[in-house]
Amino acid sequence: MIDLHSHVLPGVDDGPAAMDGSLEILRAAAEDGIARIAATPHVRDDYPTGPETMERLVDEVNAAARAEGVAVEVLRGGELALEHAAALDDETLRRFGLGGNPAALLLEFPYHGWPLELRDLVFRLETRGFRVVLAHPERNAEVQAEPERLRPFVEAGVLVQLTAASVDGRIGRASATASRTLLDAELAHLIASDGHAPAVRAVGMAAAAEAVGDEALARWLTHDVPAAIVAAVAPPPRPAFKGGRRLPWRH
Predict the structure, then answer these.
(1) If pLDDT is split at 50, 70 and 90, which confidence band does 84 have?
(2) What are the two backbone dihedrals, phi and then psi, of residue 22, each rounded to the nearest 5 degrees?
């Protein structure tokens, strides 16, 4: 599996404070079946991470992982707040490209309220040559109440990332129900951990894949689409859901 949303870099945001914590997350990722993981530190007012810091720490974490025999490759990226994505120049945005793809950007969907600037921002970024991936919209109350609000964005080429712990119910019924609705409506494209620590929401990609209830669709969400993003190619067609076993949501 490929995890394109994590806070694995040490000392830059609300992820691990030091390298030991980064290595714990990577060990948990390896145990969960993840081969590659994108470091996507917050890029926003409270965590104004610069691309130089991100790039340096990705190199340092990869070196530490190799030294410890942890077989997970850390890729570059960033989780950009909407206002920061709007303000950054093209070169900086390319350096924050998701999974090292300079044309893909992971934007942080807010947890509260509908972002009125989203439509214009997505359009402006597309005209500048970027493809948008929206991080965890299923955790937003407005999306939970009306998931179809995302359809115009998906039809315009935006990709939607669900949090693994939403998909399998670890962070509540509302997020789990929204995840299932988005999956059934073909409005979701990839699952990622959004891991901050080796516990609770740390990894859990395998559990989320199982909760999808269909092996081919789960692989598309956890490998095929993420791999296409990293390779900077068009995602493969979504496999038809075959009506496999659906797991009950956990409370």
Answers:
(1) very high
(2) -60, -45
